[in-house]
Amino acid sequence: MLTKKWIGSLVLTLCLVITCATLAQQQQQNGGNNGNQVPQLTSQQRTESQLKTLLNVSDEEWAVIQPKIDKVQVLIQQRDRFINTKLSKPQSGQGNPTQAPATLVKTKPSNKDALARTPNAIALDSYLRLATLVSSSPDSVAQIKASLDSYRAARKRSDEELLQARTDLQGLVTSEQEAILVLAGILD
Fold first, then answer.
1. Residue 93, SS3 per DSSP
2. For the chain, what percentages of helix, strand and coil (3-state, to nearest 5) are there?
3. pLDDT at 10
4. Are the beta carbons of 120 and 78 closer than 8 angstroms?
5. Domain span holding position 113
6. What is the phi/psi pair of residue 49, to 5°?
């Protein structure tokens, strides 16, 4: 039985081989180096090219699958960037750490309009309100409870949106392709 570690190593090796073969083929098509630089692909383009090759899909199939993969990746990135915001711990030597309020470390979205009402953005807003309440007025039990309920509901909507996007993608791929997407961290 193959272990996850071995399969992961195999996928990474395949990605490296594919990248090298693609670059060698491009250089050969350009008649060797002859002073011509091989066009540089962005990291995202390389990843997409490798994923397309690993999934062994045609251009037509890729046109259907790629937007679903992109949606899942965007939701995962938003979640990592916005929902997984952490509270920093008080530094030592600043009084009693049990009484010192935690400070919020947050990252604002770069494109505020595009992310304004996504479930992840709503969850972030709820999180920030809850963190502010806890650090500024810990005696307001009713407000904290309402804010906590709001955060949990927003987090649940975010989870549901990611689950739906993953389900939509999973319905389009074979078992082998699904395994590759799981190893790539796109599907669970």
1. coil
2. 65, 0, 30
3. 54
4. yes
5. 62-84+103-188
6. -65, -45
